[in-house]
């Protein structure tokens, strides 16, 4: 558990300064806020998918790497028509905001050592959090001013991405020291940290439920849930095999997860667990999904197939368990395709290194599935 020690010094307006706040105040902030905003022209290229002839757009050049955040983070604004991504087009990784209509990009950061897997848009669509080295910053998209929230404790290092709670008030992350891993919750308003789990072995992909005390995570490819702070974790009774991904349903009541059965002859499946009733069930078998996401009302899944002969991106309807091929992703590592719906379910985005380095792609699907409330 991280501790804050109150200093005798007084800050502005007589408010007490903690030792953590004083140390964070010494961290140099990114300098982009004082500079003119840098914009980049559209890099999009449209083509007919060779498998389905549906129109697909590649939005970034494959001569440099561009990445969406991991599934537990937010990239897409609900109303303002933009998304955030990481790219090394300038020689180092920085964050950018792309307008969906024009495909123009605006550079948001001048980080010294930005971690391209560790950023997320916050719930108000006006701020984002990101790691620069071992420091977590909160950036205003209005004026591009950043302030330091949290520093990784000495001797520890961050591992994996950031996970934003449903209400946007907490970030979940994993830090590692030797063989010990700690799952921490960080307040997005002030950077206060709470250690939820600390144990040996692999610990990854935490996700905070509709109540901040409900946290799921993967430990050694097993699915665990913690119902409240200070309570012991409980292993979810999944069938034999590996849990590849897990996340909360849109209403925050159930856990949806991608499961790889122990039998090699069986393909991966989407399953569901209800913590209230402790009921676990099959939702749908898949055509070898390696990564999956769901739309905002949970009616449609979007998956990236690991089938080498058919490296497709597919939608799967919950109501009838039928799949429809959208396009080829052709990525070398299907688990990193990061298929994503926009909040209104009108478009899908994914990343692939099919044309060179990782680039971001999109496709309109509003004629194939019903739009949802964003």
Describe this structure in words.
- By secondary structure, this protein is mostly beta strands.
- It has a domain at 65-128.
- The chain is built from 1 helix and 32 strands.
- The strands form 8 sheets. A 5-stranded antiparallel β-sheet has the order 3-9-8-7-6, with no helix packed on it. A 5-stranded antiparallel β-sheet has the order 4-5-32-31-30, with no helix packed on it. The chain has a 4-stranded antiparallel β-sheet with strand order 10-11-12-13.
- Strand 26 (289-294) and strand 27 form a beta hairpin.
- It is globular and about 50 Å long.
- The model is unreliable at 1-16 and 31-35 (pLDDT under 50).
Q: Count the helices. How many?
A: 1
Label the structural class.
mainly beta
**Oligomer description:** single chain
Number of strands: 32
**Mind telling me the C-alpha Rg?**
21 Å
Contiguous runs where pLDDT drops below 50 for at least 5 residues = 1-16, 31-35
Q: Give the averaged pLDDT, no decimals.
A: 89
Strand order of the largest sheet: 3-9-8-7-6
Instruction: Give the CA-CA distance, first to last residue.
Output: 37 Å
Q: Write down the overall geometry.
A: globular
Q: Residue share in helices?
A: under 10%
Strand percentage? over 45%
Largest sheet: 5 strands, antiparallel
Please supply descriptive tags for the structure shown above.
374 residues; mainly beta; five-stranded antiparallel sheet; 32 strands; 47% strand
């Amino acid at each position: 558990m991280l501790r804050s020690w109150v200093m005798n010094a007084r800050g502005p307006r007589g408010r007490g300064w903690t030792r953590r706040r004083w140390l964070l105040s010494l961290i140099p902030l990114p300098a982009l806020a004082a500079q003119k905003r840098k914009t980049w022209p559209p890099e999009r290229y449209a083509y007919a998918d060779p498998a389905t002839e549906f129109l697909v757009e590649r939005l970034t050049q494959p001569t440099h790497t561009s990445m969406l955040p991991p599934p537990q983070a937010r990239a897409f604004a609900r109303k303002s028509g933009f998304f955030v991504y990481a790219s090394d087009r300038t020689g180092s990784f920085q964050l950018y905001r792309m307008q969906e209509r024009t495909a123009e990009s605006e550079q948001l950061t001048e980080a010294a050592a930005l971690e391209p897997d560790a950023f997320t848009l916050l719930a108000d669509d006006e701020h984002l959090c990101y790691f620069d080295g071992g420091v977590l910053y909160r950036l205003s998209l209005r004026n591009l001013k950043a302030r330091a929230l949290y520093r990784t404790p000495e001797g520890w290092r961050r591992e994996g991405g950031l996970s934003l709670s449903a209400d946007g008030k907490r970030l979940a992350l994993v830090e590692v020291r030797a063989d010990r891993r700690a799952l921490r919750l960080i307040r997005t308003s002030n950077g206060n940290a709470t250690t939820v789990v600390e144990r040996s072995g692999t610990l990854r992909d935490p996700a905070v439920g509709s109540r901040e005390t409900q946290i799921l995570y993967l430990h050694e490819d097993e699915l665990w849930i913690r119902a409240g702070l200070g309570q012991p974790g409980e292993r979810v009774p999944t069938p034999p095999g590996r849990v590849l991904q897990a996340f909360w349903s849109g209403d925050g009541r159930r856990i949806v997860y991608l499961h790889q059965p122990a039998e090699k002859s069986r393909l991966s499946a989407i399953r569901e667990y209800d913590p209230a009733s402790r009921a676990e069930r099959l939702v749908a078998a898949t055509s070898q999904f390696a990564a999956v996401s769901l739309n905002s009302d949970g009616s449609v899944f979007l998956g990236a197939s690991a089938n080498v002969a058919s490296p497709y991106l597919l939608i799967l309807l919950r109501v009838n368990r039928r799949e429809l091929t959208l396009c080829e992703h052709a990525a070398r590592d299907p688990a990193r395709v990061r298929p994503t719906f926009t909040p209104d379910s009108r478009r899908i985005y994914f990343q692939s290194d099919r044309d060179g380095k990782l680039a971001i792609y999109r496709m309109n699907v509003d004629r194939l599935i019903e739009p949802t409330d964003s």
